Amino acid sequence: MDKTVDARGLLCPEPVLLTKKAIEKEKGGTIRVLVDNNAARENVTRLAKSLGWNITITTREDEYEIVLTK
Amino acid sequence: MQNKKILVAAAGGVMGLLAVLLVRYGNPANMGYCIACFLRDISGGLKLHRAETVQYMRPEILGLITGAFIAAVYTKEHRAVGGSSSLTRFLLAFVSMIGMLVFLGCPVRVALRLAGGDLNAGVGLLGLIAGVFIGVQFLNRGFSLGKSVSQPKVNGYIFPAIAIILLILTLSGASFFAASKTGPGSMHAPVIISAAAGLIAGILVQRARFCTVGGIRDFIMFGDTHLLIGFLSLLVVAFIGNISVGAFKLGFAGQPIAHTDGVWNFLGMALAGTGSTLIGGCPLRQLTAASEGNTDCAVTVFGLIAGAAFAHNFGLAAGPNGVPAAGQAAVLIGLAVVLLTGFAGVYRSKSVPGGVGLGQNG
Predict the structure, then answer these.
(1) What does the alpha-carbon distance between residue B310 and residue B312 come to, in Å, rounded to a whole number?
(2) Distance from C-alpha of B40 to C-alpha of B235, rounded to nearest angstrom
(3) Which end of chain A has fewer CB atoms surrounding its CB within 10 Å, N or C?
(4) Which residues from chain A sit within 8 angstroms of residue B140, using beta carbons?
(5) H-state helical runs in A1-70
(6) Domain named UPF0033: which ranges (chain A) (predicted)?
């Protein structure tokens, strides 16, 4: 079950908060997080790693797709 | 990741060091850097208020914006965005500034005053933490100012361009800005040193995404110490610096540009903490984000400047003898404004899983 968190256009802490809520809900599987600024990318990545999720980041024009798997 | 931690600690540390040096070179005591105080001085320098003791075009701020802008352009992080409740941000910044001027400092100066031994700032810090905690409750319940969208490029250059032009004018010795003859506004390091310190701080703060309120917020929200390390690093380095130059004096009474009224120190910073949390960061972070092309944050900075002008035009700001009755009333009104905004933002709509509706809550 793929889940997407669209946090484009949001500044921290909102992207991190939305990701955290998704992680708490899903517990595992795959979560896609879309962000559009570096600070959000760094912070979401830091949170996910600290909670033991694997990360792959794809960069598109002005956007990042962070795929979390666990 | 480890490099990022070092960068945040370095940004805080360098700011702490520069703050001690700037005071040595002439800035007011425990005010090497204070974003709120300096925006108030700029507000006065532009003659938006007539308080003759706090008027000076602080090059630290103008240099900081320039430095952050250069760093953002260089790393391709400069993007024109906006459209996320800019008027609400203006309002929240406006009342937050009044809170800061009742305490006499922004969160950066909380650290610098503590580092100088001013225990009143400890009370202010408790107020700030309480305010951030309240703000976090709203965020956790879905408070959001909505999404920003990309804007035409020109939008992103207006704010830094204004700062760069003002910096050039200030460096060239333009005499048409107001400049205090007495009081804190008359105390300043040489222009070139202030500007250079601002430039260095701006670059570091932009790269590190440094934010004092963010540090406290992330620790409360996620148990994340990343940004908090920067805040602590600022405090520790400034403390060591003050000890080594003999600028440390422990106590409540007779502290420079401070008052001992604990209730209003606490409530002033509680207002600033709540307001800053709702708008996503402390004044320093707003300056940086505005330099990166975020027009909402630029409007926020103008809100801070307008709030400072209002505070001094209507006699709300504190002085060494305490807080005037009008200032106390303004803090209470400000607290009502931030709390009402918080509740309105939370209960405007129900949260939507997996994203945020445009202009709605996540």
Answers:
(1) 5
(2) 23
(3) N
(4) 17
(5) 14-26, 38-50
(6) 5-29
Residue with tokens 């040595």: B24
Cβ of A6 within 8 Å of Cβ of B209? The answer is no
Mean pLDDT value of segment B156-173: 97
SS3 B208: helix
Tokens of B221: 């929200």
Rounded Cα–Cα distance for residues B338 and B183 (Å): 32
Judged by CB atoms closer than 8 Å, whether chains meet at B209 and A42 is answered as yes
**Nearest Cβ partner of A14 from B1, B289, B362?**
B362
Structure tokens at B280: 């996503």
Helix (H, G, I), strand (E, B) or coil at A65: strand
Residues of chain A with pLDDT under 70: 1-2
Q: How confident is the model at residue B181 (pLDDT cuts 50, 70, 90)?
A: very high
Q: What does DSSP say about strands B81-82 and A54-60: parallel, antiparallel, or unpaired?
A: unpaired
Q: What average pLDDT does the structure give for chain A? A: 92
- Cβ–Cβ contact A8 with B under 8 A: yes
Pairwise CA distance, residues B15 & B238, whole Å: 8
- The answer to whether B319 touches B251, Cβ cutoff 8 Å, is no
**pLDDT beyond 50 at B356:** no
Strands of the A30-35 sheet, one edge to the other = A2-6, A30-35, A63-69, A54-60
Q: Write out chain B residues lying below 8 Å of A10, CB-based.
A: 144, 147-148, 356, 362
> How many domains, chain A?
1
Which range of residues forms the domain containing residue A52?
A: 3-69
Q: What's the residue count for chain A?
A: 70
Do residues B60 and B25 make contact, with C-beta atoms less than 8 angstroms apart? no
Give the whole-angstrom CA distance, residue B201 versus residue B191: 15
Angstrom distance (rounded) from CA B208 to CA B227? 9
Q: What angle do CA A57, A21, B225 make, to 5 degrees?
A: 75
Tally of CA atoms within 13 A in the half-sphere of B75 that contains its CB: 16
d(CA B64, CA B128): 24
- Model confidence at B189, pLDDT cuts 50, 70, 90, reads very high
CATH number for the domain harbouring residue A38:
3.30.110.40
Mutate to test the interface with A, among B218, B229, B296 (most CBs of A within 10 A): B218
pLDDT at A26: 87
B356·A42 Cβ contact <8 A: no
- Distance between B186 CA and the closest CA of chain A, angstroms: 37
